[in-house]
């Protein structure tokens, strides 16, 4: 069985300031003595750190600290490595990160000097794809590293079966460089040609950024050691067919560079298109354990035949390693991204509801797993063996059924819980609070009526819209009208409760001025049925903007507003959701009062993490109380300046709510985006007062959870509410061996209250394979899920670790995963070749996108609030949303076929793909940009904007005009399709080429070098390759 691999041959011409790599240990599996480290702190670890790859320093760089060099070589054998602790762990589990070694250089490939950029542009100049057999690399690949590194990469030996593909992209000779002599020509591993063809230069190749301070433009670098002796770890790389260590070229003008053909490195677009071509539009059945689903970007129909649909659960790998040693060796996180309430297309079967009456669901006596397809019936059907803990249980008399000739129950296909991966149970009173049925939930609308919100028309807009959306409150399928009750509060520095009882002629207002101890001034008439009180509610919504029209109060409170809503739900003894419409920093004297602490001086320092932490300790216990009473908080923010999203957003995050943010909101421009979000949020599928438990078969367990959740203990994931867009990412660790026969089984059970007030259990089951071969693990990986996991674990760590350390760890772990594959699964090849597993060939480009995100890399145009906001959004994203967020869709619009309904093919996110004659649409799930080239076709401009030329286009508009022509209709349809199924309404920005706002747009061209730091895809690939070579040597 041959293993696909992606091969590149970068001729490294120089050392790049790199990331000190340490011997591979896996987070928690390091030295047990670290478990006592204080939360959020790293233990100091003597003289760790690696020499910069190649041990060479560019001229003009500040010298490294003394610990970088000396007798330690590339891998310092210092004390054991420190682990990566997050917040005080709620469990004894391992953190998700490999340890790091501090180095004085930035871990993230720094913007390099001009000469280095030109050279990096050539470093991948010869690429070819090999489909590799799973052979162990021979030990003669270089001097052995330190024992720890060597031990970490031992794996099963397989016989090599190389089969070589020569794709269309040309094989280019590298340029003459200081290290490989003139014209060393890289060759594929098993052929010896020297007929390389020059490839075309990318359109923007001539652009060179200026050197940074302290960097020189000199052509040569001081050589530490010539190529005469044995190769140094991580130093100069050998080239197949290259010059055997010619003399270094030290002086003279830089040689003319041959530029890299960007089409020769793995393309996310190609990977997505290939999967669509092979699996799109088909039926995917879930009857096989451990099968790999179509990519999240591929449309197909999913048929549940015993394992949960990938819409509900996706995994980082669908084959777990049998032992924790293998897991440590590969360092591939074992995780599942669970979206329990995911939306199912209309052509797929909704979940069946199983009702066992007062006896409730059948469960294993020992581990409490619910009846599912993994239970094995024995003794003629009288008993069953649990698939999770192997306990043998009696079948309850009411549930007995005879078995057929293969030991399967005769009613197997009649019972969803025996034949399907996902289904629901009606829960009995034992599963309800205080053992009594819950009341139907309530929605409470809380409007900030401070001066600015009244003046800019926001309050009037909200009140008008509520009249419409209240008609569309969610209801159970069979209900005539919604069972949800509604209530209304307005506030500035005091709170106003409204009595909207249906018997009243007009609404009554009650004011609560004591915001330090909020109480609910009325019970009867506060939460009402919309249908019964419709006229009173409409009367109130008409009055609110007038009532506060003369108010000049601009100070607001915030925590007391949440407290009031929660107390109202508690008094009514029902779960529910608060919709808070708020716009400023809460500076009025009250609990949760905040001050402006936005400090640019903290950027790029170890104290930067403070900006992501809440400013006061009021909000965390408040969130805990909300979860305890089933009160979910969704916050619509309309800031015109700093509002401290890190503090205000904490309660929405911990209660399973959503945070929406509209900067500098203007009613005439931004109301459509806000109204779409509000409608979508009110109508979406949601479960209240939820608690989730993830059970696993023996040998491994869930250790870490990421999402819009609260955890009081190590196993119960509590959510005041969970909706169809929220995902919880769960990490697993071994606690014993797994067997290839029984595999790894996961059962996710969510107990929740429906919108009609029924208590239910939603069950999702998934079986994964297990293997003692590393190649099987790599073959079954899903890159999109890996990036979701890495993003969430990094964004969680942001609260406690310096960003530089987090970036370092991410690069480190990427290199470890790929080095382990190279060493144990790929067939032998030259050290200068970069080999990527087929399932991970776009991992580097996605990882680089994560490293460049504004959360992990500060940049001038991203405010502190924006960074905290994006951090919070990603924490609850499912795989489809995180995929689009980190690698946006870029589509050419000028090539539109107006007769077709198919979307124009996406292109890679790079400036080199844009053209002056073109119009391009870019979307990442939060923003949408329409980029207009300076020479855009006038007929297109006329068709889309109804103006004669590029110069006449008004870039302030946020909605395209509705024109009757085919261009306009087709473009609007395309935008509608891209917006569909996305949790946030994307605001449209019109961008003209060569005008100032283009700077913001360019940040989304993620394959290019960042304007304020952050590598290009090519540079990052080189950086990772260099790390891999260091690890292997």
TrEMBL record:
<dbReference type="Pfam" id="PF00626">
    <property type="entry name" value="Gelsolin"/>
</dbReference>
<feature type="domain" description="Gelsolin-like">
    <location>
        <begin position="901"/>
        <end position="975"/>
    </location>
</feature>
<dbReference type="GO" id="GO:0090110">
    <property type="term" value="P:COPII-coated vesicle cargo loading"/>
</dbReference>
<dbReference type="GO" id="GO:0006886">
    <property type="term" value="P:intracellular protein transport"/>
</dbReference>
<dbReference type="GO" id="GO:0005789">
    <property type="term" value="C:endoplasmic reticulum membrane"/>
</dbReference>
<keyword id="KW-0256">Endoplasmic reticulum</keyword>
<dbReference type="InterPro" id="IPR006895">
    <property type="entry name" value="Znf_Sec23_Sec24"/>
</dbReference>
<comment type="similarity">
    <text>Belongs to the SEC23/SEC24 family. SEC24 subfamily.</text>
</comment>
<dbReference type="GO" id="GO:0005829">
    <property type="term" value="C:cytosol"/>
</dbReference>
<feature type="compositionally biased region" description="Low complexity">
    <location>
        <begin position="91"/>
        <end position="116"/>
    </location>
</feature>
<dbReference type="Pfam" id="PF04810">
    <property type="entry name" value="zf-Sec23_Sec24"/>
</dbReference>
<dbReference type="InterPro" id="IPR036175">
    <property type="entry name" value="Sec23/24_helical_dom_sf"/>
</dbReference>
<dbReference type="InterPro" id="IPR012990">
    <property type="entry name" value="Beta-sandwich_Sec23_24"/>
</dbReference>
<keyword id="KW-0968">Cytoplasmic vesicle</keyword>
<dbReference type="InterPro" id="IPR007123">
    <property type="entry name" value="Gelsolin-like_dom"/>
</dbReference>
<keyword id="KW-0653">Protein transport</keyword>
<feature type="compositionally biased region" description="Low complexity">
    <location>
        <begin position="38"/>
        <end position="59"/>
    </location>
</feature>
<dbReference type="InterPro" id="IPR050550">
    <property type="entry name" value="SEC23_SEC24_subfamily"/>
</dbReference>
<feature type="domain" description="Sec23/Sec24 trunk">
    <location>
        <begin position="438"/>
        <end position="681"/>
    </location>
</feature>
<feature type="region of interest" description="Disordered">
    <location>
        <begin position="1"/>
        <end position="116"/>
    </location>
</feature>
<feature type="domain" description="Sec23/Sec24 beta-sandwich">
    <location>
        <begin position="687"/>
        <end position="770"/>
    </location>
</feature>
<dbReference type="InterPro" id="IPR006900">
    <property type="entry name" value="Sec23/24_helical_dom"/>
</dbReference>
<dbReference type="InterPro" id="IPR006896">
    <property type="entry name" value="Sec23/24_trunk_dom"/>
</dbReference>
<keyword id="KW-0963">Cytoplasm</keyword>
<dbReference type="InterPro" id="IPR036180">
    <property type="entry name" value="Gelsolin-like_dom_sf"/>
</dbReference>
<feature type="region of interest" description="Disordered">
    <location>
        <begin position="130"/>
        <end position="267"/>
    </location>
</feature>
<dbReference type="GO" id="GO:0000149">
    <property type="term" value="F:SNARE binding"/>
</dbReference>
<keyword id="KW-0931">ER-Golgi transport</keyword>
<feature type="compositionally biased region" description="Polar residues">
    <location>
        <begin position="158"/>
        <end position="169"/>
    </location>
</feature>
<dbReference type="GO" id="GO:0070971">
    <property type="term" value="C:endoplasmic reticulum exit site"/>
</dbReference>
<protein>
    <submittedName>
        <fullName>SEC24 homolog D, COPII coat complex component</fullName>
    </submittedName>
</protein>
<dbReference type="Pfam" id="PF04815">
    <property type="entry name" value="Sec23_helical"/>
</dbReference>
<dbReference type="InterPro" id="IPR036465">
    <property type="entry name" value="vWFA_dom_sf"/>
</dbReference>
<dbReference type="GO" id="GO:0030127">
    <property type="term" value="C:COPII vesicle coat"/>
</dbReference>
<feature type="domain" description="Sec23/Sec24 helical">
    <location>
        <begin position="783"/>
        <end position="882"/>
    </location>
</feature>
<dbReference type="InterPro" id="IPR041742">
    <property type="entry name" value="Sec24-like_trunk_dom"/>
</dbReference>
<feature type="compositionally biased region" description="Pro residues">
    <location>
        <begin position="199"/>
        <end position="213"/>
    </location>
</feature>
<feature type="compositionally biased region" description="Low complexity">
    <location>
        <begin position="214"/>
        <end position="225"/>
    </location>
</feature>
<feature type="compositionally biased region" description="Low complexity">
    <location>
        <begin position="66"/>
        <end position="84"/>
    </location>
</feature>
<keyword id="KW-0813">Transport</keyword>
<dbReference type="GO" id="GO:0001701">
    <property type="term" value="P:in utero embryonic development"/>
</dbReference>
<keyword id="KW-0862">Zinc</keyword>
């Amino acid at each position: 069985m041959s293993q696909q691999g992606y091969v590149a041959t970068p001729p490294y011409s120089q050392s790049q300031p790199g990331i000190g790599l340490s011997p591979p240990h896996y987070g928690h599996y390091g030295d047990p003595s670290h478990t006592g480290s204080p939360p959020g702190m790293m233990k100091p670890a003597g003289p760790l750190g690696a020499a910069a790859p190649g041990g060479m320093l560019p001229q003009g760089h500040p010298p490294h600290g003394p610990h970088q060099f000396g007798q330690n070589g590339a891998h310092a054998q210092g004390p054991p490595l420190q682990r990566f602790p997050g917040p005080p762990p709620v469990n004894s589990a391992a953190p998700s990160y490999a340890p790091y070694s501090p180095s004085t250089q930035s871990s993230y490939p720094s913007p390099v000097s001009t000469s280095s950029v030109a050279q990096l542009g050539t470093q991948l100049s010869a690429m070819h794809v090999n489909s590799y057999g799973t052979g162990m690399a021979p030990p003669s690949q270089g001097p052995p590293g330190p024992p720890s590194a060597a031990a970490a990469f031992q794996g099963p030996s397989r016989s090599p079966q190389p089969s070589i593909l020569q794709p269309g992209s040309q094989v280019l000779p590298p340029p003459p460089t200081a290290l490989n002599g003139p014209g060393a020509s890289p060759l594929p591993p098993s052929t010896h040609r020297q007929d390389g063809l020059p490839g075309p230069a990318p359109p923007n190749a001539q652009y060179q950024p200026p050197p940074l301070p302290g960097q020189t433009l000199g052509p040569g670098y001081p050589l530490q050691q010539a190529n005469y002796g044995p190769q140094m770890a991580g130093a100069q790389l050998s080239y197949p067919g290259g010059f055997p260590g010619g003399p270094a070229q030290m002086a003279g003008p830089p040689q003319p560079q041959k530029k890299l053909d960007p089409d020769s490195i793995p393309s996310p677009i190609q990977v997505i298109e290939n999967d669509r071509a092979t699996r799109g539009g088909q039926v995917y059945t879930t009857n096989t354990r451990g099968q790999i689903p179509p990519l999240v970007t591929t449309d197909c129909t999913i048929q549940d035949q015993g394992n949960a649909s990938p819409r509900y659960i996706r995994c980082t790998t669908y084959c777990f390693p049998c032992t924790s040693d293998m897991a440590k060796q590969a360092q591939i996180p074992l995780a599942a991204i669970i979206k329990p309430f995911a939306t199912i297309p209309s052509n797929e079967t909704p979940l069946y509801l199983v009702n066992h009456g007062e006896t409730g669901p059948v469960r294993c006596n020992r581990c409490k797993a619910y009846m599912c397809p993994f239970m094995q019936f024995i003794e003629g059907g009288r008993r069953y063996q649990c698939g999770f803990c192997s306990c043998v249980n009696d079948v309850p008399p009411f549930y007995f059924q005879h078995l057929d000739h293969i030991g399967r129950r005769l009613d197997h296909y009649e019972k969803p819980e025996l034949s399907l991966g996902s289904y629901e149970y009606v829960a009995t009173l034992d599963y309800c609070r205080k053992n009594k049925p819950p009341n139907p939930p309530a929605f409470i609308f809380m409007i900030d009526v401070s001066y600015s919100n009244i003046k800019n028309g926001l309050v009037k807009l909200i009140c008008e819209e509520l009249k419409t959306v209240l008609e569309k409150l969610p209801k159970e399928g069979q209900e005539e009208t919604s069972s949800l009750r509604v209530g209304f509060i307005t506030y500035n520095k005091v709170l106003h409760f409204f009595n909207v009882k249906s018997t009243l002629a007009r609404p009554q207002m009650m004011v609560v001025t004591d915001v330090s101890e909020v109480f609910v001034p009325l019970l009867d008439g506060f939460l009402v049925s919309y249908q019964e009180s419709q006229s009173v509610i409409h009367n109130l919504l008409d009055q609110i903007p007038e009532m506060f029209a003369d108010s000049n109060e601009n100070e607001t409170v915030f925590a007391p507003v949440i407290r009031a809503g929660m107390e109202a739900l508690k008094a009514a003894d029902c779960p529910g959701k608060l919709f808070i419409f708020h716009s400023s920093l809460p500076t009025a004297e009250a609990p949760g009062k905040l001050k402006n602490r936005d400090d640019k001086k903290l950027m790029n320092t170890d104290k930067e993490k403070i900006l992501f932490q809440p400013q006061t300790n009021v909000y965390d216990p408040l969130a805990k109380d909300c979860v305890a009473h089933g009160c979910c908080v969704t916050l619509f923010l309309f800031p015109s300046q700093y509002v401290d999203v890190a503090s205000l957003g904490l309660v929405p995050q911990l209660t399973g709510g959503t945070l929406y943010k509209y900067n500098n909101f203007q009613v005439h421009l931004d109301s459509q985006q806000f109204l779409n979000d509000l409608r979508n949020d009110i109508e979406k599928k949601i479960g209240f007062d939820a608690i989730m438990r993830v059970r696993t078969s023996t040998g491994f367990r869930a250790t870490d959870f990421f999402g819009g959740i609260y955890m009081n203990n190590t196993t119960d994931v509590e959510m005041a509410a969970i909706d169809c867009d929220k995902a919880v990412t769960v990490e697993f660790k071994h606690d014993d061996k797994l067997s290839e026969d029984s595999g790894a089984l996961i059962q996710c059970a969510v107990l929740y209250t429906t919108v009609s007030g029924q208590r239910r259990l939603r069950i999702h089951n998934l079986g994964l394979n297990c293997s003692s071969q590393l190649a099987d693990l790599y073959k079954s990986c899903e890159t999109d899920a890996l990036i979701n996991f890495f993003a969430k674990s990094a964004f969680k760590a942001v609260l406690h670790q310096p960003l530089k350390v987090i970036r370092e760890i991410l690069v480190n772990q990427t290199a470890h995963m790929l080095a382990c594959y190279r060493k144990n699964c790929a067939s032998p090849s030259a050290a200068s070749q970069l080999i990527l597993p087929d399932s991970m060939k776009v991992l580097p480009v996605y990882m680089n996108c994560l490293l460049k995100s504004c959360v992990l890399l500060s940049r001038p145009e991203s405010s502190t609030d924006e960074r905290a906001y994006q951090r919070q959004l990603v924490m609850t994203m499912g795989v489809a949303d995180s995929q689009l967020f980190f690698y946006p869709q870029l589509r050419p619009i000028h090539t539109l076929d107006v007769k077709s309904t198919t979307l124009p093919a996406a292109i890679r996110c790079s400036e080199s793909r844009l053209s002056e004659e073109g119009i391009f649409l870019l979307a990442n799930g939060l923003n949408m940009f329409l980029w207009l080239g300076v020479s855009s076709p006038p007929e297109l401009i006329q068709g889309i904007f109804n103006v004669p030329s590029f110069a006449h286009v008004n870039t302030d508009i946020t909605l395209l005009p509705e024109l009757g022509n085919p261009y306009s209709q087709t473009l609007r349809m395309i935008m509608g399709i891209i917006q569909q199924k996305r949790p946030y309404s994307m605001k449209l920005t019109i961008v003209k080429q060569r005008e100032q706002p283009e700077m913001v747009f360019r940040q989304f061209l993620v394959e290019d070098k960042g304007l304020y730091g952050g590598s290009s895809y090519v540079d990052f690939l080189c950086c990772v390759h260099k790390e891999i070579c260091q690890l292997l040597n």
